[in-house]
Each structure stands twice: as structure tokens, then as C-alpha cells.
């Protein structure tokens, strides 16, 4: 702590604080037009002048030295500050300060009593409104550089620059052309920091920024990806006018991405479902809730009568809240009497849950993301956070720019790879060989932690024996990664002081995804870099959906009760039975692909799909559609008439994340609150209410009248959540699980004393490399990897309905220029892609980010049919589809 005096008042500030921090600490406000707490100080606007030990200085750039006497209130200082603001305003047209203008500058002028007296003449036309979410009015730019620093220092996109000279300096996209064609990824950082309204978001939210809290503002957690950004939703008349990143958001810290910040246009889309639909004479027709619920209840009863409780199954939603997922699995287990419940974790990080449980004992990441600040080396594997988890991607990028070493393992030159010390490019499907190769070098060169391995790990001898087969040269043959890169990457990870591993679907969505997770975990165990040893930050899966961790935590899994009690474990069942007052079926239920098999065979007679567009996003989609068509009752809870809803017998209109109350669990196991910002359309209801209503129509009462009471009940079934409640989250913001008691902090870092495995040790895995399920051949010579693009989200149901469509209007397939030339394909032209399973139509995009022989596409536009291409091959342990490896051929034009 540093002690100094501000206007005579003693004040203590932290090491590294500025005079501005000290002045604010005593409650004095200064104008700060070029300053934002999220950014490096610039000291250019001279509006925060103070006197420090007699010398006039800009408070924002002057370090708070011990004993300094700071004064702020003398008239000459007031005049200097006022002159500085007046000078800035005098160069702006009157609209900078028109009545009702929401901006920091307008606010400052109102406070200082500065009016338009000396303003420059009104101008017009110097605008760039090419972008759907960001508008630039160059005449209002004061060249404070906040937007540029936000783009560089927080987002890491470097899309903006200051151009021109002297008083004519203004911000511009670095590429020179219109904003829409720049490198901007619409994180909204520049909009949020701009103090004058030069950069704004068009529409009712224009000019609202985090600097000016609004009367109707609701704190919630983003409902897109699993990062768990805390957002403040500004509401006016049941409409969202702006969504602002919360400055105190534990993961996002005042940052957001295009999805959370701007992609809420879907809320008011004309296509939004507003009434239940029931199939009559082959057509889906609008009906009242009573009729729809009666149809569901009759269908469920009929299915049970014909095939017993196991003739019913549900796919619960990783987009929905914990409380909704808890209720859905409780309904299946206690009202229907089956364990047939699963969620999209099956398609995503089920291998993480299996692999991390086997290695360490629990089904989540081992450490807190806060540790990025302490890590000095990142191994990022099969993940593209710059596009898929942009806020995480940006924080990793900043750490790399500050000197942390970065190893990226991805077949493609993804965003982070541009900043990597080493980019390993394994052939898709060869991770296990790569990780074994890295482990070989760690062992061979003595970069392991013998004490940790002796005291806290098991399985070393077996692993060392296996690793003999993976010297760098053989690893290079198996993976295509040069031997010297394998060695160099192992040394970088092996010699780091505090290395951290983060990974994504490039590890899990493979035939041997669980082996991939386990052999990756080996690296952290060999180094003793897990288990709170102070020598590293473990292994973190960048989980996908907003609440995929939570959906699984809540027991929406065929073999697990809430809190991961095994359904086959009599003690776990007994605990749930005591709370629920019912005997539970002991046999594990069906996994998602098994549900479709059972439907095609005729043994599954009712399937309730809650927020998953299985016909678009599950693999081998023609077979999925066949399964739905074969199933006598398909009920779909949806926001839109998705591909899946089109195959349903009953479609129930639902509320989305901005329209409901509950909690989500993010990728590093933090529970956070979700709060209702606006009402859903017409007759749409929450999944929570619908589950209750279906139970009631079946004559059952699920208890749990409110989301808060539901989480409380869940804590009684699952002791690991017992310390977490809505009331506590309202107070504390976020709490990580495990958290067994209200007076204990959540365990953000796991395994401090022991691992949660049977013997308390981390388990090394001696898994040999086995080839992927599909391999290219003469007929299908290219290897297709599927994954994500920054502007759209999964099935695209929400991001295709709003401004994001202007950012990316369709799916395209990236291919190397050498392949394009060979195949006669031009950039931007239509191509037909065929696999052994189906056909898709896409637009070609030439890209050197891929190796020749490999192609890449996303699956955000169902009409392009990408999942008609993907196969039924799936992880041998968890059934997670092998989305990352499909052999295809490509022909120019539409066939
Ligand atoms: N914008 C956007 N964000 C999203 C989503 C979205 O659809 N759009 N979806 C969300 C969801 S549900 C999820 S699960 C996450 C997913 O987030 P990520 O896991 O980052 O997503 P992907 O792009 O599917 O795959 C990651 C990378 O794996 C690489 N890869 C493929 N095969 C291999 C391999 O064999 N070895 C290695 N080392 N790498 C390989 C691919 O080239 C790709 O770059 O994103 C979430 N966030
Ligand atoms: N080829 C290929 N396919 C993939 C992948 C891949 O990498 N490659 N990745 C896979 C992965 S990781 C995942 S997670 C899946 C994701 O696949 P899905 O889960 O199918 O995708 P989403 O678009 O996230 O959401 C599903 C539906 O939920 C609806 N929805 C949104 N919020 C709510 C809500 O609160 N309640 C209800 N009831 N509905 C809601 C949306 O309108 C949408 O139609 O895709 C998988 N498919
Ligand atoms: Mo996912």
C-alpha cells in the first residue's frame, strides 16, 4: 500500500496505482476523456490535471508515489481542466452536445457547465455506417485513442488506427476501407469506451456505455458460449436497448464479443415461435397450451404403455439453465421412470468429463481461468478461442504479447497461432501420438517432477514403457509434425515455471477423444503442474455452450445423477431417492446416438428434445431425421422452427436466456446468475414452466416451485453444490463448485491435497495412438475438419436472425490454393462436397491457413447440409462424434 494525501485527506492505494486512482479513492471526480480503467493510461487529453507536490500533472499517467500531496480543487486547476475540455469541444460540431446526447463528453460538459458557445459549424456526411453494429461519425472523434487501445490491448485485433495530422487526426479502420470490410470482430470495445459518440451502436442503445449506468439495467450471464461473461442488459419498454460487458465480470472484466454484446436481434425476429404447434393431418398448426400439453401427456403415456418407461427419452439443453436441466432429469427419472436423458455434452466435451474424471477424479477443468495472469506458458490444443471463446482468446493473446510463451497445436493456422512461439500442426486425428511424443521428450530429458510422480501420481511405469515407442522421429511420422518442433514444444512446456493447458474440440471430437484428453492430462501430471503445486495451472477444457458444464452437473446424463453420483451406485441413488421420494431405475439410460438407433428400431416411442437442433448439428443428419420420423411422438422446445422442429409432432415455444431466471455454470465451474431482462413473446414459456406443466399434465408434481428452490433441492441431492444458492450468488456474483457449505468458498483450484480418484492420486494413462475412423482414399481424397466461425453460433438459429448475417452470410469451405488449382475451383464459387455419408453445398474460400489436402467448414447454416457429410464414428468411450475427421471429395459447381 502507498499512502498519500488528496486535498488534505490521507488515502492508501495499491502498488502501481496512479494519482487518478488516489483522487477517486477520496470520492473526487475528474474529467478523464482519454482514460478508461481497462486500458494503459495515455495522458493526452489533459482534462484530469491536478497538482502533485506543487507541480501540475495529468493524474491518470502519474504514479502515486508515497507521501505525495495532491490537490485538485484550486481555481486555477479547475480553469485548466475546463479550458482543456472547452478546447476539445470547440473543434466539434454542435451535435456533439445536443440535448439528449449520451456520451461521456456531453456528461462532462453538463457537469462543468460548458455549452456550445464556441463550437465549430455543423457538418454532416463524414460517417461510416457500413457495419451492422458499429457506426463511425468521424467529426465527433477527438483522437483520444481509447478505441485503438481497446482494440489492441483488450481485444487484440489491432483493427483500428489514428490517421491524419494534428487537429485533423481521427480514428479509422487500419485496412483503410469501410468499417465492415476491416478486421473488426465487433467485440464492441470501441463503442463502449468512446467518450464522444464518434463510435456508437446504432438503434435505441446509441451512446449507452458502461461509463453511464442506466436506470433499467439487469445483470445476467451470457447465454452463448461457455466463457460466462457477466453482462448488463439495458432495457427500455420490454426491449433490449444495449448489452454492456460488466466491468466486474469475473472472467470478462469489461469485455465481450459480438454474440453477447450485439446478437440479440433474434429476440424480436418475426420467425420467433409465439404459440405451441401440434401436427394435424401432417401439418404443424398453432394451438393453445392446454391442447399441446394434453397431446404431450397422452403421447408419453402411450409410449410407456407400449414399451415401458424406457420407451421415453429426452435430450436436455445446454442452452437452458441449471434449474431447467435439473427439473428435466428429475421428470424423466421420477415421473417417467427412466434414465434416458442426455445433453449436447455428448457431442462436445463428454470425452473431457470421462477423461478428466479418470485422470483426476472430477468432470471439470482443474484450475481457475484467473490463473492466466500467473501462467508463463500456454499450451493451447485443438481450440480456436479467438473465434469460439473470444474473451478467453483475447486474454490469452494479451498474456502472450506480455511475454508468456505460447504453443498452439492445431492443424490450421488459427488466430492464436499467429502469435505462437511454436505452432504444431498435427494431421487431424493424431493427437494421441503427438501428446505421447511430447511426453516422451519430457521423460527422456528429465523435465518431470519426480517428487510429485512418487507422492501424487500412479501409472508411471506403464506409461514410460509405452512412451519408448514415441521418440520425436516416430511422432513426426505419425502426426506430420516435424521432430524438432515436438522436442522444442516439449522443452517450452517442460521448462516453464507455471504452464497451463487449455484445449477444445480438436481434442475431444475424435474416435479416440477420451484417450486424447487423458494423454494430454499426462503432460500436466508428468510436470507436477496440476493439483495446486504452484508449478502450473493444470488442464482446462474450453467448454462450449453457455451451460453445458451445468447441464451435465445437474445430472442430465444417462449414467449420472446431479453432482456426478453414478446411477449404478446404490448410495448415490439412495441419496436422490431420499430427496425425491421415489425409487430410481438403476440401469444407465440411452446416450443421444443410442436414442436415435432405438427410435429407428422402434423401441423408442417418445423423444422430447429441449433446445438442440439435432437434425442440423448431430452427425449423419439424414439418419437423425429418419429416427425422428420413425418415433411416434417427438416434442421439441424451441425458439424457432428449427430443422428438428420441422420433424416434430408438438413444438413448444420457449423463452431464451434474456427472458428467464436461474443459473449457468461456465467452463471453469463457476455458477453465475441468469436474470430476466425482458418478457418472451406471446405464449412462449420458460423450459422451467413447461417441464412443470408437462409433469402436471401427467398428474405429477415435481416440487421445486421456483428456480431458487430448485437449486436448493439440487444441493441436497448433490453435496458438491450444497453451498451454492441464488441468494449467495446475488451477493457474491460467482461461486465455483465444489462448494459443500454456504460458509465455504468455492474450490476454484481443485485437488489441493489429494486427487478425487479412488486412491487419491492422479492417474497417468498409457494409451497407444490408434488411427481415426475415416481416412482419405482415392474416391474421397480430402480430409474435412468441421468447426466454428466467429460470427455465428452452432446451428445459427439465433445469430442468423439479426445483424450477424451481414457479417457472414453463409457457410463456406476453406481450401488451400494448391488444391483449388488442382480441382479447378475459384475463390467465392459454389462447390459440391461429398462424403461416404452425404452431400453438402458450400462456397469455396481459398486459404493458406490449412495444409494442402485438408479442408475446413463450419455448420452454422443448416441448408448447406454440412452434417449430412459427417459420419457415425464416435469416441470409443463416450460416443462423442468424430466431427473433426471426414474424408470428402470436392467438385466445382452444384451437382
Ligand atoms: N462463434 C462461435 N463460438 C462458439 C460456438 C460457435 O458455434 N460459434 N460454439 C460453442 C461450442 S458449442 C463449443 S463446443 C466451442 C468449441 O470451441 P473450439 O473447440 O475452439 O471449436 P472448433 O472450431 O470446433 O475446434 C477447435 C479446433 O480444433 C482443431 N482440430 C481439429 N482436429 C484436430 C486434431 O486432430 N488435433 C488438434 N490438435 N486440433 C484439431 C480445428 O482446426 C479447430 O481450429 O465453441 C463455443 N463457441
Ligand atoms: N459438423 C459439426 N457439427 C457439430 C459440431 C462440430 O464441431 N462440427 N459441434 C457439436 C457441438 S460441440 C455442439 S455443442 C452441438 C450444438 O448443437 P445444438 O445444441 O443443436 O446447437 P445450438 O444452435 O446451440 O442450439 C440448439 C437450439 O436451441 C435453441 N435454444 C436456444 N436457447 C434455448 C433455450 O433456452 N431453450 C430451448 N428449449 N431452446 C433454446 C436454439 O434455437 C437452437 O435451435 O453441435 C455439434 N455439431
Ligand atoms: Mo459444444
Automatic annotation (TrEMBL):
InterPro entries assigned: 2Fe-2S_ferredoxin-like_sf, 2Fe-2S_ferredoxin-type, 4Fe4S_Fe-S-bd, 4Fe4S_Fe_S_CS, Asp_de-COase-like_dom_sf, Formate_Dh-H_N, Formate_DH_asu, MoPterin_dinucl-bd_dom
This protein's record includes keyword DNA-binding: no
The protein's enzyme class: oxidoreductase
Domain 2Fe-2S ferredoxin-type, chain residue ranges per copy: 1-76
Superkingdom, taxonomy of origin: Bacteria
Example of a GO MF term: formate dehydrogenase (NAD+) activity
Occurrences of domain 4Fe-4S ferredoxin-type (ranges): 132-163, 176-204
Limits of the 4Fe-4S Mo/W bis-MGD-type domain: 215-271
Protein keywords: 4Fe-4S, Iron, Iron-sulfur, Metal-binding, Oxidoreductase, Repeat
The keyword Mitochondrion is annotated on this UniProt entry: no
EC numbers: 1.17.1.9
The family this protein is said to belong to: In the C-terminal section; belongs to the prokaryotic molybdopterin-containing oxidoreductase family.
The protein's name: Formate dehydrogenase subunit alpha
Gene this chain is encoded by: fdhF
Amino acid at each position: 500500500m502507498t499512502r498519500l494525501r488528496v486535498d488534505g485527506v490521507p488515502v492508501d492505494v495499491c502498488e502501481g496505482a496512479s494519482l487518478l486512482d488516489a483522487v477517486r479513492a477520496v470520492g473526487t471526480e475528474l474529467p478523464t476523456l482519454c482514460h478508461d480503467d481497462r486500458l494503459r493510461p495515455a495522458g493526452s487529453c489533459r482534462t484530469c490535471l491536478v497538482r502533485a507536490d506543487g507541480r501540475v500533472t495529468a493524474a491518470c499517467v502519474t504514479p502515486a508515489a508515497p507521501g505525495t500531496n495532491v490537490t485538485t480543487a484550486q481555481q486555477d486547476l479547475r480553469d485548466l481542466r475546463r479550458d482543456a475540455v472547452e478546447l476539445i469541444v470547440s473543434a466539434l460540431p454542435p451535435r456533439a452536445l445536443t440535448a439528449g446526447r449520451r456520451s461521456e463528453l456531453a456528461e462532462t460538459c453538463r457537469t462543468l457547465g460548458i455549452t456550445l458557445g464556441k463550437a465549430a459549424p455543423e457538418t454532416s456526411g463524414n460517417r461510416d455506417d457500413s457495419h451492422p453494429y458499429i457506426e463511425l461519425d468521424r467529426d465527433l472523434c477527438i483522437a483520444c485513442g481509447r478505441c485503438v487501445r481497446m482494440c489492441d490491448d483488450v481485444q487484440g485485433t489491432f483493427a483500428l488506427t489514428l490517421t491524419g495530422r494534428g487537429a485533423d487526426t481521427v480514428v479509422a479502420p487500419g485496412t483503410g476501407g469501410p468499417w465492415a470490410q476491416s478486421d473488426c470482430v465487433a467485440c464492441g470495445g470501441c463503442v463502449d469506451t468512446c467518450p464522444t459518440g464518434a463510435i456508437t451502436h446504432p438503434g435505441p442503445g446509441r451512446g449507452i456505455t458502461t461509463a453511464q449506468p442506466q436506470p433499467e439495467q439487469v445483470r445476467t450471464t451470457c447465454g452463448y458460449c461457455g466463457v460466462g461473461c457477466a453482462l448488463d442488459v439495458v432495457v427500455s419498454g420490454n426491449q433490449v436497448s444495449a448489452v454492456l460487458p460488466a466491468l466486474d465480470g469475473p472472467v470478462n472484466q469489461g469485455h465481450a464479443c459480438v454474440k453477447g454484446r450485439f446478437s440479440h436481434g433474434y429476440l424480436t425476429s418475426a420467425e420467433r415461435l409465439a404459440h405451441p404447434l401440434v401436427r394435424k393431418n401432417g401439418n404443424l398448426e398453432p394451438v393453445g397450451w392446454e391442447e399441446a400439453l394434453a397431446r404431450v401427456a397422452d403421447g408419453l403415456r402411450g409410449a410407456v404403455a407400449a414399451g415401458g418407461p424406457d420407451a421415453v427419452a429426452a435430450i436436455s439443453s445446454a442452452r437452458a439453465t441449471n434449474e431447467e436441466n435439473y427439473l428435466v432429469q428429475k421428470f424423466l427419472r421420477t415421473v417417467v421412470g427412466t434414465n434416458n436423458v442426455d445433453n449436447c455434452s455428448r457431442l462436445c466435451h463428454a470425452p473431457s468429463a470421462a477423461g478428466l474424471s479418470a485422470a483426476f477424479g472430477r468432470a471439470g477443468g482443474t484450475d481457475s481461468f484467473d490463473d492466466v495472469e500467473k501462467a508463463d506458458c500456454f499450451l493451447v490444443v485443438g481450440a480456436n478461442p479467438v473465434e469460439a471463446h473470444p474473451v478467453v482468446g483475447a486474454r490469452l493473446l494479451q498474456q502472450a504479447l506480455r511475454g508468456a510463451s505460447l504453443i498452439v497445436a492445431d492443424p490450421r493456422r488459427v488466430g492464436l497461432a499467429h502469435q505462437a512461439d511454436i505452432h504444431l500442426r498435427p494431421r487431424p486425428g493424431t493427437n494421441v501420438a503427438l501428446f505421447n511424443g511430447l511426453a516422451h521428450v519430457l521423460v527422456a530429458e528429465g523435465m518431470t517432477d519426480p517428487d510429485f510422480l512418487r507422492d501424487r501420481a500412479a501409472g508411471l511405469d506403464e506409461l514410460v514403457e509405452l512412451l519408448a515407442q514415441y521418440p520425436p522421429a516416430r511422432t513426426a511420422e505419425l502426426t506430420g509434425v516435424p521432430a524438432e518442433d515436438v522436442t522444442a514444444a516439449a522443452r517450452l512446456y517442460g521448462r516453464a515455471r507455471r504452464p497451463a493447458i487449455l484445449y477444445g474440440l480438436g481434442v475431444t471430437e475424435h474416435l479416440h477423444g477420451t484417450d486424447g484428453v487423458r494423454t494430454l492430462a499426462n503432460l500436466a501430471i508428468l510436470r507436477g503442474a496440476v493439483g495446486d503445486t504452484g508449478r502450473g495451472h493444470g488442464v482446462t477444457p474450453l467448454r462450449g455452450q453457455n451451460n453445458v458444464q451445468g447441464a451435465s452437473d445437474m445430472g442430465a446424463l444417462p449414467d449420472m445423477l446431479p453432482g456426478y453420483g453414478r446411477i449404478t451406485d446404490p448410495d448415490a441413488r439412495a441419496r436422490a431417492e431420499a430427496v425425491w421420494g421415489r425409487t430410481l431405475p438403476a440401469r444407465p439410460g440411452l446416450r443421444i446416438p443410442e436414442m436415435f438407433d432405438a427410435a429407428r428400431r422402434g423401441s423408442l416411442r417418445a423423444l422430447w428434445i429441449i433446445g438442440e437442433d439435432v437434425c442440423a448439428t448431430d452427425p449423419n443428419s439424414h439418419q437423425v431425421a429418419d429416427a425422428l420420423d420413425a418415433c411416434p411422438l417427438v416434442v421439441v422446445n424451441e425458439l424457432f422452427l428449427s430443422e428438428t422442429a420441422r420433424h416434430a409432432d408438438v413444438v413448444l415455444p420457449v423463452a431464451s436466456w434474456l427472458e428467464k431466471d436461474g443459473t449457468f455454470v461456465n467452463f471453469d465451474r463457476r455458477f453465475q446468475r441468469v436474470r430476466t431482462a425482458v418478457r418472451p413473446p406471446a405464449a412462449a414459456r420458460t423450459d422451467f414452466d413447461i417441464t412443470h406443466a408437462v409433469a402436471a399434465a401427467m398428474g405429477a408434481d415435481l416440487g421445486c416451485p421456483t428456480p431458487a428452490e430448485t437449486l436448493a433441492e439440487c444441493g441436497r441431492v448433490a453435496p458438491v453444490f450444497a453451498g451454492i444458492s441464488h441468494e449467495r450468488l446475488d451477493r457474491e456474483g460467482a461461486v465455483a463448485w465444489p462448494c459443500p457449505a454456504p460458509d465455504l468458498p468455492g474450490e476454484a483450484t481443485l485437488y489441493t491435497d489429494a486427487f478425487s480418484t479412488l486412491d487419491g492420486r492422479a492417474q497417468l494413462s498409457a494409451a497407444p495412438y490408434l488411427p481415426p475412423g475415416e481416412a482419405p482414399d482415392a474416391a474421397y481424397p480430402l480430409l474435412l475438419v468441421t468447426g466454428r466461425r466467429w460470427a455465428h453460433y452452432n446451428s445459427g438459429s439465433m445469430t442468423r436472425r439479426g445483424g450477424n448475417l451481414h457479417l457472414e452470410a453463409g457457410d463456406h469451405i476453406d481450401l488451400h490454393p494448391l488444391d483449388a488449382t488442382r480441382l479447378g475451383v475459384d475463390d467465392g464459387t459454389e462447390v459440391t462436397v461429398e462424403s461416404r455419408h452425404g452431400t453438402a453445398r458450400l462456397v469455396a474460400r481459398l486459404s493458406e491457413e490449412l495444409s494442402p489436402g485438408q479442408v475446413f467448414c463450419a455448420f452454422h447454416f443448416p441448408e448447406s447440409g454440412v452434417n449430412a457429410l459427417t459420419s457415425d464414428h464416435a469416441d470409443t468411450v463416450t460416443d462423442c462424434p468424430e466431427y473433426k475427421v471426414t474424408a470428402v471429395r470436392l467438385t466445382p459447381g452444384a451437382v
